[in-house]
Amino acid sequence: MQLPSSLLENAVAQFTKLPGIGKKTALRLVLHLLKQPNNEVELFGETITRMRNEIKFCQRCHNISDGDICSICANSMRNQQVICVVENIRDVIAVETTQQFHGTYHVLGGIISPLDGVGPDQLTIESLVNRIEKEAVEELVFALSPNIQGDTTIYYIQKKISHLACRVTTIARGIAFGGELEYADEMTLARSIANRLPVQQYVK
Amino acid sequence: MQLPSSLLENAVAQFTKLPGIGKKTALRLVLHLLKQPNNEVELFGETITRMRNEIKFCQRCHNISDGDICSICANSMRNQQVICVVENIRDVIAVETTQQFHGTYHVLGGIISPLDGVGPDQLTIESLVNRIEKEAVEELVFALSPNIQGDTTIYYIQKKISHLACRVTTIARGIAFGGELEYADEMTLARSIANRLPVQQYVK
């Protein structure tokens, strides 16, 4: 596919750098922008550049923030003694959407994965341990992906804070709502049998 | 889905304006950009703004162009007496990709569609008729969508140039290569029977 203009070619090339966007989709997006008024497209470019240049990360929980401390950390209605540990910002948004968690967060920035070259030093584990020590945190709720890397990360952090009086929990794993038993993988089914709950507790 | 930062919220809002991009996809794209170096994201914004501000349209065929006349019109190797009439720039790219057409193009900018409020005056028909008159064009090849709007547009333009000695053709319509006869719609099958070709001509 050869494009009739180098300006168009460059714009398409920029869009194809984004995840999940191929050359055809990029062209569709660029031709759409071409139909918009100039000032709309300028606003598009400026908003994105400004976002990248001005966005801050909360110094306490490493979540995205407009200021030095994010709105969740600054909210006195939230339980500051309970920390939900997540891999990235998207997970914060996912948990927040449930409206079921009223504590604060800690964004690790990844999970320990030696194969991908991610060790504990690349993550915000040091800062998490500091928080638990200084702020007398009562509970750490791990909401990490249920795989070996997630489990390794939980194990590593648990070891690091074993001398502190902080309860460590993880979000429940089992058969998803609306899921069919027969299609569940063995590992999930086996774990959900081993971790079965009394019905009263489940209903609550 | 509530986002933790207004800068992030604005960037996501800009991406959701693009066709086929919802809020979740937009967030994924924005978080990807957030991981890129600042200058990369600045380049992204600048490239798109620059494309919108500086791109030109060929004064002759209305295709996208870096200069006043596009590279196809300026190419003396192309047959300037044969014009392929298409709806938009994407169609030029599609026909060019086949490498089967060696004439020039004329981009209408749409097709006549009274229901959508598109009349002949909004299209570049006037300029096409001028071209045919002044440049002694020998053949007009219509490559428009095979629907009522496309047929109306062909009929309208044909009427407009009926006094000129210019052959008018349209790209072949029929069963697509690899298509199954039993799944073809009646209209296409009926037309492809009516417009059947001698086998020698087909093989050629």
Write the layout of secondary structure elements.
2 copies of one chain form a homodimer.
Chain A: H1 6-16, H2 23-35, H3 38-54, E1 56-57, E2 64-65, E3 79-86, H4 89-98, E4 103-107, H5 125-135, E5 139-142, H6 148-160, E6 167-170, H7 186-194, H8 199-203
Parallel strand pairs in A: 3-4, 3-5, 5-6
Antiparallel strand pairs in A: 1-2
Protein model, in words:
The structure is a homodimer of 204-residue chains. The first copy, chain A, is α/β, with parallel strands linked by helices and 204 residues long. The first copy, chain A, folds into two domains: 49 residues, RecR Domain 1 (Helicase, Ruva Protein, domain 3), CATH 1.10.8; 94 residues, Dna Topoisomerase Vi A Subunit, Chain: A, domain 2 (3-Layer(aba) Sandwich). Helices cover 44% and strands 12% of the residues of chain A. The first copy, chain A, has a four-stranded parallel beta sheet. A two-stranded antiparallel ribbon of chain A has the order 1-2. In chain A, α4 links the parallel β3 and β4. In chain A, α1 packs across α2. The mean pLDDT of chain A is 89. At the A-B interface, α1, α2, α3, β2 and α4 of A face α1, α2, α3, β2 and α4 of B.
